[in-house]
Each structure stands twice: as structure tokens, then as C-alpha cells.
Design goal:
This protein is mainly alpha-helical and about 250 residues long. It has 14 helices and no strands. It starts with a helix and ends with a helix. The N terminus is likely disordered.
Length: about 250
């Protein structure tokens, strides 16, 4: 199991570690129906899985949408090469789930699955999906639900690694707007969220570098005094890291 998958498995304790019997039964029932359809359609079974999951992902039932997002995550773990082949379809479904207006469980499952898939494809070929994912993930960093915040910080930190030159300007602007959330949640009430935030902060640190456009300014003048004060008080080790890497 790679590092990305281990992060996802390490979810905040606010969520129950075991599912109620009724819920486990519904999950098994859902995948049993998918398996039955696959046995009846022997040609290109995995392609059929994607079409079945696509149908469920837009179902009026939030439970079915949630299970569809989970199913996409399972397929991504077991058949990463096939996911690359149907990448555009899968990303479209997951982004749709990320913006689900009714169910936080659908949103949460979409983020976890996106984290898996971005790790598998190394962020390549995201196109405009990068913008959609970043914008919605950023709004979830301050959500009241611990699990959503945790997954949002994990995903946001991963996006920082995959922004590349194409989206560097856009992502730099997003990080700038997210700076306060990053500072606040370094002291999050949930220690796992705080840890995920700290990791995301480190990943985003290159985008916090000050532009040295005014070379006549002294080193102290170029630093962000508010950021430095807060980090020195609450997280001196992060401040030392930023100084050592000339980020501040």
C-alpha cells in the first residue's frame, strides 16, 4: 500500500470505523448487482463497470451516488491502468460528486477517490479539471465536518504537487487566498486534521515565496510579519523550515 492510500485510510476518528449491519448489507447488495450485470455482459467488463457506476453517480438517491464514488475508488486501486484509459469519464464523475449539493458523504468519498486517482496518474492530463477540483477543495478546508476538512487538506496538498507550470499562477493565487485557513487549522481541534494541514502547508510553501521584485528592500522588509509572528508562536519548526528554504 503506497503513502497516498495510507493517508486516506488514516481518517479522523469522528467517523465510525465499522459500518452498521444494514449499511454493510446495502453496500454488498449494490456491488452484487454490478457483478451480476458484468456476468451477463462478458464483453469489455471493466468498461461496463464504468457505465454502470456513471449511471449510479447521477442517481437521485444519495446512497447510490455515495456507493458509486466508492466503487470508482475500488476500481482505481485494483485497475489503475484501466482508469488511465477512462480518465476523462472518471474525473468527470468525481468532480460531479465533489460538487454534490445534498450529501456530505458523496463529497467526502469523491475527495478520497480523487486523492487515489491523482496519485495513480501523477496528476497528468487533468486539464480544466484541475481548476474545478482546486476551487471546490479550497471551500471545504473550513467545513464544520472533521472528515471533510481532513480529506480536503490531503487533496489540497496533493494538488500543490501536481500544479506544474501550466497552473502555477492559478494555484499560487489560490494558496494566497487559503493562507489564513492554513494558519488557523494548524491548531485544528482535531489532531489528525491539524497534521494534514501541516503537511499541506509544507506542500504549498513554494507558492508562498515572496517575489523579490524590489531588490532595494531589506530582508526583514520582504517577510510577511503576520505570518512570521503566528508561526513563531505556534509552530516555530515550520518557521525555521521556511527560513531555511528561503520561503520567508
Amino acid at each position: 500500500m503506497d503513502q497516498t492510500q495510507r493517508s486516506i485510510m488514516d481518517q479522523p476518528r469522528s467517523l465510525p470505523t465499522t459500518q452498521p449491519k444494514k449499511k454493510r448489507t446495502s453496500v454488498m447488495s449494490f456491488f452484487s448487482k454490478v457483478s451480476w450485470k458484468l456476468r451477463s455482459q462478458k464483453r469489455e467488463p471493466l468498461k461496463n463497470v464504468f457505465f454502470i457506476l456513471a449511471e449510479r453517480a447521477r442517481d437521485p438517491s444519495a446512497k447510490k451516488r455515495h456507493l458509486a464514488m466508492r466503487g470508482l475508488g475500488t476500481v482505481a486501486c485494483e485497475n489503475p491502468d484501466k482508469v488511465r484509459k477512462y480518465k476523462k469519464m472518471v474525473l468527470d464523475l468525481l468532480v460531479h460528486g465533489l460538487y454534490d449539493p445534498m450529501s456530505y458523504e458523496v463529497i467526502h468519498e469523491s475527495m478520497k477517490t480523487l486523492t487515489i486517482i491523482l496519485g495513480k496518474i501523477q496528476g497528468k492530463g487533468l486539464g480544466s479539471f484541475f481548476i474545478d477540483i482546486t476551487l471546490q477543495t479550497r471551500t471545504l478546508l473550513d467545513d464544520e465536518n472533521d472528515s471533510l476538512r481532513y480529506s480536503a487538506f490531503v487533496l489540497f496538498g496533493q494538488l500543490a504537487a501536481f500544479a506544474g507550470w501550466k497552473w502555477k499562477k492559478f494555484f499560487t493565487n489560490q494558496v494566497k487566498q487559503t493562507e489564513m485557513s492554513l494558519l488557523i487549522h494548524l491548531r485544528d481541534r482535531n489532531p489528525q486534521v491539524a497534521k494534514a494541514c501541516k503537511t499541506a502547508f509544507r506542500a504549498c510553501s513554494p507558492y508562498l515565496r515572496q517575489r523579490k521584485e524590489h531588490s532595494f528592500q531589506g530582508e526583514e522588509d520582504q517577510r510577511n510579519p503576520k505570518l512570521c509572528r503566528q508561526l513563531s508562536h505556534y509552530h516555530p519548526e515550520l518557521l525555521q523550515y521556511f527560513y531555511a528554504n528561503k520561503i520567508l
